[in-house]
Amino acid sequence: MSIALRDKLMLMVAVLLAAVYLFPLYWMYVTALKTGSAMFASPPSFWPSDPQWSIYGSVWESRNVGRYLWNSFVIASGAVSLIVILGTGCAYVLARYRNAWVDVGLFLILMLQVLPASLMITPIFVGFSQLGLLDYPRVAVILAIAAKSMPFFVVLVRAAFMSVPMELEEAALVDGNSRFGAFFHIVLPLARNGILVSAILIFMQAFGEFVYSKSMIQAIEYQPASVGLNSFMGPNTNEWNNIMAYAAMYVTPILAIFVLLQRRIVSGLTSGALK
Amino acid sequence: MRRLLLSIRDGRGFDIGLVSVPLIFLFAMAGLPLIYNIVMSFQEVDMFSLGTFARPFVGFKNYITLFSQPETWPILGNTAIFVVASIAGQFTIGFALALFFWTGFPGSSWLRGLFLVSWVMPGLVVGAIWNWILSGDFGVLNFLLKESGLVAANIFWRSDPNFSLWAVVIANIWLGISFNMILLSVGLSAIPQDLYEAAELDGANVVQRFYTITLPMMRSSIGALVALGLIFTLQQFDLFAAITAGGPNNSSNVAQYWAWDLSFRQYDFAQGATISVIMIVFVMFASVVYVRSTRHEVRG
Q: Which end of chain B has fewer beta carbons closer than 10 Å to its terminal beta carbon, N or C?
């Protein structure tokens, strides 16, 4: 078998595997376009013969999707801003030094990364309600998400800082820069891409966050899209085309970012994930 | 005062300032709740004492109550099944895919990256899609299973107590495959190629090369990945909320969902805190294994 033929065959198998794997996504988009009766047809059709494009408009209106997505956006942006402001400096210091203290710090941060949100929410909720933070539910969720995701960000960005040669910073210091100046003018610009990719990853995670929002945000007008989707899916629902349309509107922006930045996201993840 | 300012601008104070603010934040937002959780598990907490710190201490009463409940052991058993089945499925399929893409052909890295799409999707969306795919009467999975002759009648994935846990396991395996595959690919690409060339010259076949080179060289990656898988599976909450909500009759309930359910559905915060403490000890143990197996990489 020649190399070219082998490559083609492998590529075909790979495309097939990817198609099988991504079938659930495809099924979401197809179901969203089906009519109420086509959805429950047996055998199910794998191609929408009569696509109902108007479903997006009607679900957007009736479920207030715009408001939910806006809340998700506000929560994710707040959490990411807080994480980037606090976490970048932390990652820089942890990357610049190698001693026992750094090891202890890294160990503690890795430990915090593993605490499941659904277990931490009980003390956070009780504590926040005693502090009166629950009167500002979105702020409370932003703080909780920031604490949950910052360790992951620090680990990823630390890897980005490690790839910046220390000699550049030392040269800047010799040339009369202060530590402050060298950090902001030399090191930070060089690590910018790594920080940006990590921030996008954290944003996508925070955009889909559920446990904290579900537990701490009672007022419907502050709830993010994940909680909205959860309350849309009752135990005996049969509006699957509407639910899938909601899910598609929720997930499509994230998928678009992912496809655009795929190469960087994958390399960013793999550079830091095992470290 | 001036010396302090100077130090913050240009000296040790700069590093200490950068690292201490986030650490204080993390301590306040993650460390204190952790301690508070342990304290609450030894207290009597109800809706009336929720707002005060001065609650009566009851010793190990919460723990004793917890283990005298009839549903405790089945739920802990479910958690074990969920973790073991999810990790086994994710790891096997992920490893097979990683080995497949590792052979390298035009477009392989791009297609491999496409799999990661499941990792960035909101958990609730994944849950909603699988909820619909696993639907009893009209679910597409039942249709495919019946057409291929694997089952004779529809399986009611979400409402049959024998299958409800497996419904979540299936969705969780789908979710976790991509992460396993990418991390294993990283490990595979770090194996020096000349080992294989030498083994091939010595006449080792594909299976022998896999068992004598690939597996031993991957040992630390695999150890880290299994520990990481354990950590991530114990964090899985969204799929339970979206697919079965722990039901029917706790048949698909696991500890991390139960803890939340006790606190926020039944308002029994003390019991919720108690089960949280027990599970967090487990997770901490897994993370020590994880950190140990990647320690040489942590030191960089």
A: N
